[in-house]
Design a protein that fits this description.
This protein has nine helices and 15 strands. By secondary structure, it is of the alpha/beta class. The chain has a single domain, classed as 4-Layer Sandwich (Purple Acid Phosphatase, chain A, domain 2), CATH 3.60.21. The two termini are 34 Å apart.
């Protein structure tokens, strides 16, 4: 059943698809740090889920003692059916699993974050996903081509609106998908829910990510301020750990940012969700004496990335603190379903059954999650 919003809607079915209008002009993908736009909200940039969902929905979350949401990244697409297949099983699973929202891990649109790409790469794709969609930007969302609008212009218009309203790009197309703009307070922000806290970073455009003042100080402050009685999740586009290659390898810069912030805040999140790399990887670590799981979940529909090596599960990775690769695969697209209940986080990697989907008009998920794990609140 579609979820109820507070003075907003999350989508209506629309039959005829609209296609992306991406061109391939020159663009500065990986080379420049882009200044951040002005924040529409007030510091410290927090949004309570109760501001987005109707009171009846929040009461259900409180009464059941649990909250379930989806997460994946790198969904934007300019080719193939991957994005549509993942969107289909997202919608099917949401209806079956009591999901409350989708948290996007960045690269909502490709190749650069133009507002004109949102109808084809976002609103049309998720026209039947009648649930809220939150997001952090990825490098493509901030990238610019020659003479394009300012960095993050499209992201801010669609996710950081002052109030829920018809998206500007949708007004120009004459189509209405029923999904209002989201009202996040900034491109980096904190989502507070009855059962967990999610701190979302914007790791900018350069390869490996680049987080500068004042966001780095904000990050450590938000870690320290997160309610101690609830599990804590961090979302960031560029991954700290990854066994992919080139610009999709693990980031030394993000590693330092994370460790410095945790050390200053004296708080380590239970789970870190990342995108950027178009496959699934999970690393179990011990940071400052606390267990933390790092998940790379950039398999949301854009493409598939080959891993550097097909390492067996439970391989120890050489690092300055203990890191173990628990699971990885570059053969599947999909998403992570996350349930928080009784101060525990359960994660399931749900993948598209591509063999079955290729022979049938109906797309299906592989019945058993490819990876499942549970983290207890520390």
């Amino acid at each position: 059943m579609p979820i109820q919003g507070r003075n907003r809607s999350f989508g209506l079915p629309q039959e005829e698809p609209i296609r992306s209008s991406v061109d391939h002009s020159g663009w500065d993908n990986d080379h420049f740090f882009h200044d951040l736009p002005d924040a529409p909200g007030k510091a410290p940039y927090r949004l309570d889920l109760a501001e987005v969902l109707a009171t009846t929905e929040i009461n259900k979350i409180v009464d059941t003692g649990e909250i379930t949401f989806h997460a994946t990244g790198d969904t934007g697409n300019i080719r193939g059916r991957f994005q549509e297949e993942v969107a289909y099983i997202l919608g099917t699973d949401a209806d079956q699993s009591n999901v409350k929202f989708f948290y996007h891990l960045g690269d909502v649109v490709y190749d650069y974050g133009e507002d004109r790409e949102y109808p084809g790469q976002f609103y049309d794709i998720y026209r039947e996903y009648n649930y809220p969609i939150f997001a952090i930007p990825g490098n493509h969302d901030g990238a610019r081509y020659n003479s394009s609008p300012d960095s993050l212009d499209g992201f801010m218009k669609n996710f950081c609106s002052h109030k829920p309203q018809m998206p500007p790009a949708i007004e120009r197309t004459g189509r209405y998908y029923g999904r209002d703009t989201m009202t996040q307070p900034h491109c980096y922000w904190t989502l507070r829910t009855p059962h967990c806290t999610i701190i979302g970073l914007y790791t900018n455009v350069p390869s490996g990510g680049n987080v500068r003042a004042p966001q780095d100080a904000w990050f450590s402050t938000e870690l320290a301020a997160a309610p101690a009685d609830k599990p804590l999740i961090v979302a960031m586009h560029h991954p700290v750990h990854s066994i992919a290659v080139g610009s999709h390898a693990g980031s030394i810069a993000m590693d330092k940012l994370f460790i410095d912030a945790c050390t200053k805040a004296k708080r380590v999140p239970e789970l870190v969700l990342c995108g950027h790399v178009h496959n699934y990887q999970r690393f179990e670590t011990t940071v400052l004496g606390k267990q933390c799981q790092f998940v790379v979940a950039g398999m949301g529909g854009h493409a598939k990335d080959k891993l550097k090596a097909q390492l067996p599960n439970n391989t120890k990775i050489q690092h300055s603190y203990p890191v173990t690769l628990r699971y990885s695969t570059d053969k599947h697209i999909g998403f992570v379903r996350i349930k928080v209940k009784s101060r525990k986080i359960r994660c399931d990697f749900i993948a598209v059954d591509e063999q079955r989907g290729s022979r049938s008009a109906e797309v299906n998920a592989i019945k058993k999650p490819l990876d499942s794990f549970v983290i207890s609140h520390q």
